Protein: Nitrogen fixation protein NifT
Amino acid sequence: MKVTLNKKGDVYSVYVPKKDMEQIVVSIEQKGAWGGEFTLANGWVLEFETLDEVPALPKTMEAKLLTRGE
Structure:
């Protein structure tokens, strides 16, 4: 799914356009320099591609929904 990832200060947020939903990232299980599993405040866990460097944000990216936290 396409999402927009943003960062303000030390806080990441994810906007999901198809759901018109923005959520704060509450934890990151990082893999590599950047990427891995991002857990959102609503319980969703999204997996982002592992990158060799931190991308410039905000950025629209592909993410895989691993769980809805239900």
Observations:
- The chain has a mean pLDDT of 94.
